[in-house]
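ARCHIVE CARD
CATEGORY: sequence design from structure
SOURCE FIELD: tokenized fold
FIELD CONTENT:
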């Protein structure tokens, strides 16, 4: 609301209050001339009018409501919002701030979250033999507070935060073996992640399968944590203008020839040879997917030699991806869920994945890069891979999200 309208409403409120109070005081002071019988002399149909004082209880309530209204204006930002914050305050993020409905909500959320955090530390972490995470979580929270409120945060602050997040990885692995932690994690998954990845975590077209061992950024617990904390923005460039339609068809044929999805296709070997040359141009596909086409964790580029696809591995689908590119966003969850809930969610996702089977993707990249495990749509690929054409069964750990949640 602008200053004009807030001032207008404030002035009208004061004017109404003063008018009503003035009328009441005038009535109380007015003393009419009375007859000998105590009436005012007004009579109608045998009914005479007396001049009796208002009941004291009514006057107490009326004047009390006026006093209460004035007190409300003083304690809360009811007068000239933005200019007068009021005397009332609440605690938000360790700081005393003026009362607003928004600040009160945040204060209540922090109070409720403290109950959850205490239970998380005393019960879940303790049962999973992961109490050592408490000190790391405390240090991480301090760094995040500096990032939110610091006027001149250190240049390496984000690196420090990412380092603390990575330190939580071993504790997430322990939580992934704890039934109580997985129970809470499954609820968090169904409430927040299932809308894109599905209740069984097997994903859909454009949304990765979380139950296999094919990862765009690596599948270690610390990688999953980083993705949940920071989110992902993936992009696959459109190549139609750069290599033309003939180049699109040639590269698609080559990608089809090296993938695990070539069965049933009669490949054009001339186009395969042409596509290989285009693919290996230094500024083309090889830049992200590598010479062996197995992808790179550092760029989030998927493995093109398996049979796992994010948008489908049919010939025409590959051509469409090359023509128009792909784009996807995985939101960050640190703001909404907080560090403790992200640990539980990461543990649950890690328990679903087939991390016991070595992954063939990302062979040319450092495994310390964060994972796109929950990358809602991470199509950072020349062919948009990361989802099976035929959905695979759950990994050998047998964990099924729907079953866990039920």
């Amino acid at each position: 609301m602008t200053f004009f309208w807030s001032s207008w409403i404030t002035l009208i409120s004061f004017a109404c209050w003063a008018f009503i109070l003035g009328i009441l005081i005038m009535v109380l002071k007015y003393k009419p001339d009375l007859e000998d019988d105590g009436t005012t002399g007004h009579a109608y149909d045998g009914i005479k009018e007396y001049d009796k004082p208002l009941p004291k209880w009514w006057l107490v309530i009326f004047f009390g409501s006026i006093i209460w209204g004035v007190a409300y204006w003083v304690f809360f930002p009811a007068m000239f919002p933005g200019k007068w914050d009021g005397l009332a305050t609440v605690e938000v993020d360790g700081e005393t701030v003026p009362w607003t409905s928004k600040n009160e909500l945040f204060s209540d959320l922090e109070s409720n979250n403290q109950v959850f955090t205490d239970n998380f530390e005393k019960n879940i972490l303790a049962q999973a033999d992961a109490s050592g995470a408490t000190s790391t979580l405390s240090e991480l929270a301090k760094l995040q507070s500096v990032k939110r409120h610091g006027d001149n945060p250190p240049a390496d602050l984000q690196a420090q935060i990412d380092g603390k997040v990575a330190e939580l990885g071993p504790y997430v692995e322990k939580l992934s073996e704890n039934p109580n932690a997985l129970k809470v994690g499954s609820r968090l998954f169904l409430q927040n992640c299932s809308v894109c990845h599905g209740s069984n975590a097997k994903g859909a077209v454009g949304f990765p399968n979380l139950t296999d061992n094919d990862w765009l950024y690596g599948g270690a617990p610390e990688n999953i944590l980083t993705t949940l904390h920071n989110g992902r923005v993936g992009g696959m460039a459109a190549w139609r203008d750069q290599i033309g339609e003939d180049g699109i068809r040639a590269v698609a044929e080559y990608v089809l020839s090296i993938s695990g999805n070539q069965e049933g296709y009669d490949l054009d070997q001339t186009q395969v040879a042409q596509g290989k040359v285009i693919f290996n141009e230094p500024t083309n596909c090889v830049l992200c997917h590598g010479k062996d086409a197995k992808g790179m964790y550092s760029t989030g580029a998927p493995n093109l030699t398996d049979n796992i696809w994010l948008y489908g591995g049919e010939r025409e689908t590959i051509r469409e991806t090359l023509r128009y590119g792909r784009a996807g966003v995985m939101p960050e969850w640190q703001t909404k869920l907080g560090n403790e809930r992200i640990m539980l969610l990461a543990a649950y996702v890690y328990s679903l994945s087939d991390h016991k089977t070595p992954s063939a993707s990302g062979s040319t990249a450092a495994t310390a890069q964060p994972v796109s495990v929950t990358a809602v749509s991470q199509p950072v690929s020349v062919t948009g891979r990361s989802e099976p054409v035929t959905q695979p069964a759950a990994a050998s750990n047998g964990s099924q999200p729907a079953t866990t949640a039920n």
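CARD ANNOTATION: The two ends are 47 Å apart (CA to CA). The longest helix spans residues 3-29.
SHELF: design records, drawer C
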